[in-house]
């Protein structure tokens, strides 16, 4: 894994959990929404194994919230996403790609509905707050848009239910997927959501007072001893195996939701006004020019990508690009995401990848990494 | 200097000059506009000394551009800043704080006027492009707002004129401060501006094709041998001594331009419509609640700030916060910027600073680090 030494300054925000993260020996980091995000303690491989069998505590405070509150809040949230938010109940979360007037993806947050007229967008790495503020002001909407003091802490892994039930009570087990409740933990009010950036199950706990970060961490840490709780982080191996795409790496403002293979998370014909309706109607009609797909690259493990890897057809013509790749212990091969042009991205398609000069065969897979029926 | 290992990924963009930066042994970095920015090669101290006497080449590709082009371009640029842009000539640069409807500073770019209806905002570290896109769409303006493929390379230091004249011709010496011309260097068209983030003089060269980054670097590198050209970067010591404030560290969206002591860069009574006029008229009337000032902290050099340092009055009450601090070789003391409440921020005021538990005396200084007349 390629790293560079990053100098800290006030401009790079620290998380309310950072003291514990450093005490536990986090060894590699990234910056996400201008906040330090720990990625690795010992190694991706060891933490992947542990995450798949036990339970972990993750500092994901960098999943910042954009609060939208006021009489026009629903109208504004509907405007910025092709997903139908009118059906989102209070206490419910919805994954909702945000798109500009060209259909370009601005971010892919989880929308939490806190009240009829109050939402949080729990964002990936781009400054949604500024974009939404601009639209709200430009349209003269009666809303407030701001970043509240909210910092998620994640409890992820197959034993997450046991741990969270020990801390907040047995009712936690009954929280449905993508629903949240109000709880008090370590004397501080939190939202407890069944969600998280892994396929192993678990919760995200939305701390609402950064001064209580260490208290919240410590409550879970103590209760977690009997479950072999360890510190962890969104894990590259696990997220690729589970098919979780990362905004900024796998899709950008250059892609629309069809290109990012997010059809199931949009409602092109929804009733409410939204910015990119015309574009999406057209793309649905014509078909997307390219698509983000799962790709298996044959052969041994490959070194980290030093530059973009081209995806090639039989004639050696570039037809796409690899956006993420990692060796998968579960499948015993290199699993990757790639954006591939129309005509070359069907499941089962055989292609080649130029891995910094090393040519490898590859094949497009379905969401379960299969070659299809 | 406190650093953490930062894992690279596609989400963290690399600059067109990065290959040379790494070859020259850059040893500390930060992330700025989601792009890697080298900060240190050998040490801040050594590079400070060299910068003040010779000439350096800086990878500042992370100073991204927001292009605003179209019939409503001037109207839009005027709307987002309290600075009068109507007087900005084609070929001129203006430093212009951008402010939201509450007067909060969104960014403090250099505005370059490329044509009557075409501007670049050369931005500090926040996503201006998204904010301006939102406003433009919300108001239905006839403009395009996007990030072009433009990457600045800086040539800074007292010998910058000699070096740049050798490369582009003697006419470069006549470019006035904050003016730019069109040139071709290394076979690629660039904008050559007399500007840059140091007080030592020099140029910023706006590369317009990232594929030509190494060619552009190499032309200056070869020509620079006779001037002891070295790689450098925006230097913490030099920028503080020169009074250059950094958006995100020294001022944020929580501050208005009066609080950030930017009065000379705004025109509250300008003719054109702008978003925060009412707020700024009121703040001018009432006086700002706090102010960003120069502060000298007495005694020996202090360790890096691990948390925010409080500024205290005689009774030990907190009246402000230190935003940046560095040991100044020129003044032989710790120079700092601090945001200090009204009533305590006049030049000459004696205060104390809680430097992670170490209490030091301090004094408010003018822009030249003097105690005043």
Question: What can you see in these coordinates?
Answer:
The structure is a homodimer of 373-residue chains. Chain A has helices at residues 18-23, 44-53, 73-80, 128-139, 160-168, 213-223, 236-241, 277-286, and strands at residues 3-7, 28-32, 35-40, 56-59, 65-69, 93-95, 98-99, 105-107, 110-115, 118-122, 144-146, 151-156, 180-185, 188-193, 202-207, 230-232, 290-297, 309-312, 318-328, 333-341, 350-355, 358-365. With 373 residues, the first copy, chain A, is α+β, with helices and mostly antiparallel strands. Chain A has three domains: 18-62 and 150-241, Gyrase A, domain 2 (2-Layer Sandwich), CATH 3.30.1360; 65-134 and 256-288, Aminomethyltransferase beta-barrel domains (Alpha-Beta Plaits); 290-373, Aminomethyltransferase beta-barrel domains (Elongation Factor Tu (Ef-tu), domain 3, Beta Barrel), CATH 2.40.30. In chain A, the strands form five sheets. Chain A has a six-stranded mixed beta sheet, sandwiched between helices. A six-stranded antiparallel β-barrel of chain A has the order 17-20-19-18-21-22. Chains A and B meet through β1, β2, β3 and α4 of A and β1, β2, β3 and α4 of B.
